[in-house]
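Attaching the record inline, Q. Sequence:
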Amino acid sequence: MSKFQPVHIVDGARSPFLKSRNVPGPFSASDLATISGRALLARQPFAPEQLDEVIVGCAGPGVDEVNIGRVISLRLGCGNKVPGWTVMRNCASGMQAIDSAIANIQNGRSQLVLAGGVDALSRTPLLYSDKMVMWFSLMAQARSLGAKLGMFAKLRPAMLLTPVIGIVKGLTDPVVNLMMGQTAENLAWKFGISRQQMDAFSVGSHQKVSAAQKAGHFEEIVPLIDANGKVYAEDDGVRHDSNLAGLAKLKPFFDRTYGKITPGNSSQITDGAAWLLLASSEAVEKYKLTPIGKITDTQWAGLDPAQMGLGPVHAATPILQRHGLGLNDLDYWEINEAFAAQVMGCVKAWEDPAYCKQELGLDAPLGTLDPAKLNIDGGAIAFGHPVGASGARIVLHLLHILRRDHGGKRSRHGIATICIGGGQGGAVLVEAV
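Structure, as predicted:
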């Protein structure tokens, strides 16, 4: 049994997840986090200045928001004395912020922490090529009119017409030189997952998000209003009419000749923020808080970057072993949907005797995860994956699922887990109160 000291979840909130439309979105990352965080703090019985720290996960802060955790903390009205800082663990940055808060609470350094994640991926910049950057540098050094004219003579149209797409560079592993979608292709090949199976999984994700929206199951969302007065009240990437025939028309993106991974069975590029308010038992008593849940264990794991999508298997399995749990002993699971092949690959890895023995050191496979327990309100394929926010979002939403009335059935605990670019996985064991 783990010696982990549980940490209370007092409350949480998130912004709507807004799909990138190939133009900069209406909100910066700090806007998304500040608006949703302000609404969360406004309903608490303590002042923002009474927080011990604010921790934010962010994979791609803007150049004007480098330590975005501090920027957000000040914008939230926490005051000069509340430290605000930023963590980055790729797709699990928001989960890392939560785990960093847990560590500080457990060692007595903090009692009350606002932790979460954010990214505005639509605002990822276009970058000039090295040749263009060098041209700008030499132009700046040119002093005479003749020298400047000489530099213009060296300017080639191709240097201006071939910008480096920042999001593509950020989603490429520099060690194995594979884009994240190519690592998903590896899993599809490894476990024999067909294109039709992936597309069917993706249609299911959209259908589940659509049904959950109609049922009002995303109560953690704080609406946004842009500068023109437009209201953004819900995740806008879901396709309510998603179907297999439509997805079948999409061409593979990462391996255009033999591939199966398309934009339709991949997570969407999205902007969003998610928060959790974490507290020690002392803080709960001091401020007379009413926790909605607690985190009872966390785990990080590493694996081959070329198969990074199996990170949830490597991170969640040790938690199950420590607590004597089987896959289906948990009430619900949230596995972040980076790609359909990635989630399906995780399920197949737990079923595979060879993988469980060779990679996890198990004598037997863990079995088949009940699909009725997995991502019951859909996932990132339908409403997007703002990299810094997703790890926090799945923890928060899992807790809401556990607290929901499921036909009179009481739910107790579940695991939220996520794959991480670079070959890692993170998992959090959550218990409802």
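The chain has a mean pLDDT of 95. The radius of gyration is 22 Å.

More tomorrow.
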